[in-house]
Design goal:
heterodimer; A: 324 residues; mainly alpha; MetI-like fold; 17 helices; 2 strands; 1% strand; B: 287 residues; two-stranded antiparallel sheet; 3% strand
Chain lengths: 324, 287
């Protein structure tokens, strides 16, 4: 088989050599068959760079603005590069966010919620993928339904429910639903797991059963370890989304000490006004770099995590059969 | 006495046990709130210091939403128009980016890393803050006069949503992170052998895109569209959600009315999704 292809490609090169020069140039530039030529590659490259700029622009803007002093900011000749690196903004944002405290809260909640969701959704996804029982399809429709219900539709009853439970101003509303496979995009994760488990061979379980393993052992010892790519994808998504989660926590937790970083960022302007008692003139110019610095501080841990995990992440997505 | 079940019955019971935690959660945190908010939408809710009173008002909230309220119908129409513009933009954009990154270009890893940035940012308040402070570069669209001419040529009913989408154009593109992932993963499912076979039969890249890639991607494009609509309908930039929220704690209208608006909004999205799904998937089954 290998010999055949190499023979074929040798024939190809011989043919190429016999061709007139301009034709060879043309095939280099425009490509032949499935191979793209230089021109096509250049166009793809330019398009990619263009689009990448759209994505990078706000981040560059953030980085540049947060390093500017007020003088640089009002100077019309300075657009991108500040005259000197001005660290004061970061320091103010650090203080205004009560950064270490907020970071601790955010990491704590995001980790627990992610662990809960990664496990509970795997259990549900496994049940949906590998068993037959009456009403299964109907129940799976309900999983889809859960995915598309806007949180605003159910937030009031949830609020009343949590008040009855005595869960307001606690972390329970952010953790208990996650433990049961609901919560932030839980249905999406169930669907991802189900897709993954559907793709595994049936013989695995049959062999284990013959060896006397029960269903729980099979799930915990064989299927879950197999599902590593899916676990990775789900836990990363879950962590990032919990990190950024804003709406529901803002409804159920009013105690500022318990706020996550994202919510502290939202309240940063007010906090800054309280701390520094800025004069009313040009207030937004004054605090813009500080809020930029705040945004940077909130997103930077997750950005670091992303750049570390990015490679496994994209590979795992390809291997989960997410879309089959 | 030990209960004896047939093997099949035992298996289905076990399967049912696996999804029981989810089912419990669904009943408590989804089904009950949904039913309760449906009930609330037919009542007027009065919150007093000691209790919450529900007065049954029939369809009054729904009638008021369309006939009495002069903000909601306008906002809803704007939301529909904006979605009609931004959903295709996002889907086509993710398709293009997915196809481009799938190409074998230099620095592909870097581009991938950049294009998945929205996955991190898009749900976040951080990006809202950035755009509030003018980091969106929205003005770069307005710098092109073409767009202004284009906008002024449109009928007034379309004028507003189109310029709204354009002014947030970068923002619209920022909501396509997961969609790009979906398309990319879908492209991986098409084996290279199909393209090789087509090339042997003399098909160029152009033909094989229209005859192989696009048909194979169709179900995933439908999926992407569905996902995009769901994302947009719960995104923090969505004005509808802000409107519903503001009614929730308004003294004049209250929670009952907010629940009714929530249900109208949900019903609209549900109908749109079912429509797209059935139409999009039906065509696929002809193969």
């Amino acid at each position: 088989m290998i010999a055949k292809t190499s023979q074929g490609s040798r024939a190809e090169t011989i043919k190429q050599r016999l061709k007139p020069k301009w034709l060879r140039l043309r095939s280099l530039l425009m490509g032949r068959g499935m191979r793209s030529g230089l021109v096509a590659r250049m166009i793809v490259m330019i398009l990619l760079i263009d689009v990448a700029l759209i994505y990078v622009y706000p981040i560059l803007y953030m980085l540049s603005t947060m390093m500017m002093s007020t003088l640089d900011l009002v100077d019309p000749t300075i657009r991108w590069i500040p005259t000197e690196l001005y660290w004061d903004n970061l320091a103010k944002a650090f203080e205004g966010l009560k950064y270490w405290h907020g970071l601790g809260q955010t990491v704590f909640i995001a980790l627990i919620a992610t662990a809960a969701q990664t496990l509970s959704c795997a259990v549900a996804g496994y049940g949906f993928a590998r068993y037959k029982f009456p009403g299964k399809n109907l129940l799976f429709m309900l999983v889809f339904l859960t995915f598309i219900v806007p949180p605003q539709t159910i937030v009031i009853p949830l609020y009343l429910l949590y008040r009855n439970f005595g869960w307001l101003n606690t972390y329970y509303p952010l953790i208990v639903p996650e433990m049961l496979g609901l919560g932030l995009k839980g249905s999406l994760f169930i669907i991802i797991y189900r897709q993954f488990f559907l793709g595994q061979p049936q013989s695995l379980e049959e062999a284990a059963r013959l060896d006397g393993a029960n269903s729980l052992t099979i799930f915990a010892r064989i299927m879950l370890p197999l599902a590593k790519p899916a676990v990775l994808v789900v836990s990363l998504f879950s962590f990032v989304w919990h990190w950024n989660d804003y709406y529901l926590p803002s409804m159920f937790i009013s105690n500022q000490d318990m706020w996550s970083l994202v919510r502290r960022l939202q309240g940063l302007q007010q906090t800054l006004d309280e701390i520094y008692d800025v004069n009313p003139y040009g207030l937004s110019t004054m605090t813009e770099p500080v809020r930029m610095a705040g945004a940077f501080l909130v997103i930077v841990p997750i950005l670091v995590l992303y750049f570390i995990a990015q490679r496994w992440f994209t590979e795992s997505i390809e291997r989960t059969g997410l879309v089959e | 006495m030990k209960l004896k079940l047939s093997l099949a019955a035992r298996r289905s019971l076990e399967g049912f046990l696996f999804i029981t935690p989810w089912l419990v959660g669904f009943c408590v945190f989804m089904a009950y709130p949904l039913a309760f908010s449906l009930y609330m939408s037919f009542t007027e809710v009065q919150v007093t210091a000691t209790a919450i009173n529900f007065t049954h008002v029939g369809w009054a909230n729904y009638v008021h939403a369309f006939l009495g309220d002069n903000v909601f119908p306008v906002q809803l129409a704007n939301f529909v128009k904006e979605s009609l513009i931004s959903v295709p933009i996002i889907v086509i954009f993710s398709l293009l980016v997915g196809l481009l990154i799938n190409e074998d270009v230099w620095g592909r890893g870097v581009f991938r890393a950049i294009f998945f940035l929205p996955v991190i940012f898009s749900t976040s308040q951080v990006i809202t803050t950035l755009f509030d402070l003018g980091a969106g570069g929205g003005s770069f669209i307005q710098r092109f006069n073409v767009f202004n001419i284009l906008i002024s040529a449109l009928p007034p009913s379309l004028n507003e949503p189109v310029s709204a989408v354009l002014s947030r154009f970068t923002l619209v593109l920022w909501s396509s992170g997961v969609q790009i992932l979906l398309i990319l993963a879908a492209l991986k499912t098409i084996g290279s052998t199909v393209y090789e076979a087509a090339a042997i039969d003399g098909a160029g890249r152009w033909e094989s895109f229209w005859k192989i890639t696009l048909p194979a991607l169709r179900p995933f494009i439908v999926l992407t569209t569905v996902y995009t609509i769901v994302e947009l309908s719960v995104s923090p930039f969505n004005q509808m959600l802000g409107l519903i929220n503001s009614h929730m704690f308004s003294v004049r209208t209250g929670m009952g009315y907010a629940a009714a608006l929530g249900w109208i909004y949900f019903a609209l999205i549900l109908v749109a999704l079912v429509l797209i799904y059935t139409v999009g998937m039906r065509k696929v089954h002809r193969y």
